[in-house]
């Protein structure tokens, strides 16, 4: 018998690809929204797949039904028309309808918020993103605003450059500045799944990085 059921959006992407595996190892059941099931390499009994689209409200509803937590690692190419806020809005509406309280999402470390005290180099990096990926950054800010206005137990994790790699377990966390330049997707999965029963970052937007 599993402890909780976790809905995962974006679980086949660079950031999200180890989330399901990590959650299953910790005894959770998993339901993933996928566009193409062939992208799932390891299938397991307590893993359900919903084939659909994150921009389709019915696919989101079907994915998160009977779940206890939603982890959102949806992503798009930086130059694409951004849909981050739209996907997050659809998820939050559906969570309300289903009475689900816990949301864990990811965004980029270049998102700067009130209260941040970024180093010069991180401020410069954020500025470059705002110039070169302006539409994406506006949409990512909108996504954060939507979360801030909700009364759910949300955590939005700010990530540095993501590299392929297994969990090393040496994650640095910081609420006001990015504590490193990169992180493995194995460590991201470890951190995100660890947040399922952790309240410390409720309604917060922490930065994480590998050592
Ligand atoms: N990669 C990095 O270095 C990095 C750094 C900092 C922050 N981030 C943030 O991390 C998040 C994820 O980025 P990523 O690099 O993992 O992106 P990615 O590799 O492109 O993966 C995107 C994920 O979203 C899914 N997806 C995209 N459009 C979808 C749709 N319409 N319906 C259902 N699923 C859809 C993809 O499914 P398919 O398998 O079907 O394509 C995939 O699972 C983004 O918020 C990004 O800004 C990434």
Radius of gyration: 16 Å
Total number of helices: 6
Outline the low-pLDDT stretches: none
Termini gap = 36 Å
Strand content: 15-25%
Q: Would you tell me the structural class of the helices and strands?
A: alpha/beta
- 3D shape: globular
Helix and strand topology:
Elements: E1 5-9, H1 19-25, E2 29-34, E3 47-51, H2 57-64, E4 69-72, H3 84-98, E5 102-108, H4 120-132, H5 134-149, E6 153-159, E7 161-163, E8 171-174, E9 182-184, H6 185-194, E10 207-210
Parallel strand pairs: 1-2, 1-4, 2-3, 4-5, 5-6, 7-9
Antiparallel strand pairs: 8-10
Helix pairs in contact: 1-6, 2-3, 3-5, 4-5
The chain binds NADP nicotinamide-adenine-dinucleotide phosphate.
Please characterize this protein's 3D structure.
The protein is α/β, with parallel strands linked by helices and 211 residues long. The protein has a single domain (5-210), classed as NAD(P)-binding Rossmann-like Domain (Rossmann fold, 3-Layer(aba) Sandwich), CATH 3.40.50. Helices cover 33% and strands 23% of the residues. The chain contains six helices and ten strands, in the order βαββαβαβααββββαβ. The protein has helices at 19-25, 57-64, 84-98, 120-132, 134-149, 185-194, and strands at residues 5-9, 29-34, 47-51, 69-72, 102-108, 153-159, 161-163, 171-174, 182-184, 207-210. The strands form three sheets. The chain has a six-stranded parallel sheet, sandwiched between helices. It has a two-stranded parallel ribbon with strand order 7-9. α1 links the parallel β1 (5-9) and β2 (29-34). The longest helix is centred in the last third of the chain and has 16 residues, at 134-149. The model has no long low-confidence stretch (mean pLDDT 96). The site of NADP nicotinamide-adenine-dinucleotide phosphate (NAP) has 24 residues, from β5 and β7.
């Amino acid at each position: 018998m599993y402890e909780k059921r976790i809905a995962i959006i974006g679980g086949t992407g660079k950031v999200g690809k180890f989330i399901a595996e990590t959650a299953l190892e910790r005894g959770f059941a998993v339901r993933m929204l996928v566009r193409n099931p062939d992208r799932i390499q390891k299938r397991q009994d307590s893993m359900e797949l919903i084939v659909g689209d994150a921009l389709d409200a019915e696919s989101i509803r079907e994915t998160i039904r009977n779940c206890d937590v939603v982890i959102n690692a949806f992503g798009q190419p930086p130059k694409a028309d951004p849909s981050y806020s739209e996907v997050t809005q659809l998820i939050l509406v559906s969570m309300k309808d289903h009475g689900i309280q816990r949301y864990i999402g990811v965004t980029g470390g270049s998102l700067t918020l009130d209260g941040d005290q970024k180093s010069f180099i991180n401020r410069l990096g954020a500025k470059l993103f705002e110039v070169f990926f302006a539409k994406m950054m506006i949409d990512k800010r909108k996504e954060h605003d939507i979360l801030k206005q909700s009364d759910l137990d949300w955590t939005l994790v700010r990530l540095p450059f993501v590299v392929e790699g297994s969990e090393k377990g040496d994650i640095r966390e910081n609420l006001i500045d990015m504590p490193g330049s990169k992180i493995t997707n194995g460590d991201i999965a470890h951190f995100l799944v660890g947040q399922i029963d952790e309240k410390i970052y409720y309604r917060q937007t922490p930065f994480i990085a590998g050592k």
